[in-house]
């Protein structure tokens, strides 16, 4: 690599000299280069708000999702510095890239084994968390206010039928019960979590039906519901997207029924999180749904002590965007 081209490329990107950027790229400068600060030319362009340079670098193969040593992307730099035009360019690039990758991933799917190792693993219950054997949190008590908000959303059709995929600590299900739904179906796949549900008497509640198994294996047992919540552990985004394919039949039409999910998508990076919110919204739109994301502040819930003993911090953002999804023909009834 010839640094005599790459360093000037970073400098030209920072000052917005598009002509120099073009000539350096034409001469073989690497648009993916990281300088001594750990920044790419695209990051420099984003920090300075140079939209034309950012667009050109993206067209030349600069990665929109490269990270600095501090874990920031070009989109984060644009966001922090208030450069809306560059931010929009990077956001669109991220959305298009992820939609293409998701389309490719669909063709490679089919083994249906993403969460099998978790289901065979032991879990430990404590007052404020459920952990797997690798000290990764399955669910934590700080999510309580979020689960209450999710329950309020999916129970917006008073006295309706509600479905929850994934029990965990039972936070959302406890909140759902406060709304006295006509029926409350819970799908849980982990045997230890299921046993704990039974010990705690969930199978004795008059309006509760527990379906034990992976949602993929029991989908034929499910009916249609006024409210649906999805929060599984040990699965990937592709699994949730597969579940979304069943939503047109699972979520009742008419009456303002609501689907929501735990929105932990890229929960450690603000820009990536926005990209994935947009991606999931577009994919749900193709299925006939409209999705709104309601901002909820969570900074005060996440002190350092919350993560003591937890191997991976799965959420590091100050704001949680709660998804509210409805059939488009239900919008007027919301």
UniProtKB/TrEMBL annotation:
Keyword ATP-binding among UniProt keywords: no
- Please give one Gene Ontology molecular function term for this protein: protein-arginine N-methyltransferase activity
In what residue span(s) does the RMT2 domain sit?
A: 111-334
**What Gene Ontology cellular component terms go with this record?**
cytoplasm; nucleus
The principal localisation class reads cytoplasm
Q: Where in the cell is it found?
A: Cytoplasm; Nucleus
User: Which Pfam families does this UniProt record tie to the protein?
Assistant: Ank_2
What is the protein's known function? S-adenosyl-L-methionine-dependent protein-arginine N-methyltransferase that methylates the delta-nitrogen atom of arginine residues to form N5-methylarginine (type IV) in target proteins. Monomethylates ribosomal protein L12.
Could you describe the subunit structure of this protein? Monomer.
Q: What is this protein called?
A: Protein arginine N-methyltransferase 2
Query: From which lineage does this chain's organism come?
Result: Eukaryota, Viridiplantae, Streptophyta, Embryophyta, Tracheophyta
């Amino acid at each position: 690599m010839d640094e005599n081209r790459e360093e000037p490329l970073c400098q030209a990107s920072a000052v917005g000299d598009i002509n120099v950027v073009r000539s350096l790229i034409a001469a073989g400068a690497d648009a993916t280069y990281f300088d001594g600060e750990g920044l790419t030319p695209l990051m420099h362009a984003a920090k300075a708000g140079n939209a034309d340079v950012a667009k050109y670098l993206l067209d030349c193969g600069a990665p929109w999702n490269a990270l600095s040593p501090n874990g920031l992307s070009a989109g984060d730099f644009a966001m922090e510095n208030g450069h809306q035009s560059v931010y929009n360019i990077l956001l669109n690039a991220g959305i298009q890239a992820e939609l293409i990758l998701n389309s490719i991933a669909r063709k490679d799917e089919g083994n249906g084994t993403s969460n099998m190792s978790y289901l065979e693993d032991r879990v430990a219950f404590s007052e404020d968390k459920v952990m797997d054997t690798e000290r990764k949190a399955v669910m934590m008590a700080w999510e309580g206010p979020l689960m209450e908000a999710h329950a309020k959303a999916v129970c917006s059709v008073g006295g309706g039928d509600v479905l929850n995929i994934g029990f965990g600590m039972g936070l959302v299900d406890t909140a759902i019960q406060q709304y006295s739904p006509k029926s409350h179906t819970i799908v849980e796949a982990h045997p230890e979590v299921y046993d704990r549900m039974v010990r705690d008497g969930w199978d004795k509640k008059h309006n509760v039906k527990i379906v034990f198994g992976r949602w993929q294996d029991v989908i034929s047992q499910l009916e249609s519901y006024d409210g649906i919540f999805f929060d599984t552990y040990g699965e990937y985004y592709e699994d949730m997207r597969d579940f979304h394919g069943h939503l047109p039949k699972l979520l009742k039409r008419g009456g303002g029924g609501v689907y929501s999910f735990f929105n932990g998508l890229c929960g450690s990076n603000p820009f990536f999180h926005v990209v994935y919110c947009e991606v999931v919204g577009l994919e749900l739109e193709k299925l006939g749904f409209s999705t709104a994301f309601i901002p909820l502040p969570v900074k005060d819930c996440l002190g350092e002590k919350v993560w003591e003993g937890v191997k991976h911090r799965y959420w590091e953002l100050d704001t949680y965007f709660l998804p509210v999804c409805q059939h488009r023909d239900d919008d007027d009834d919301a």
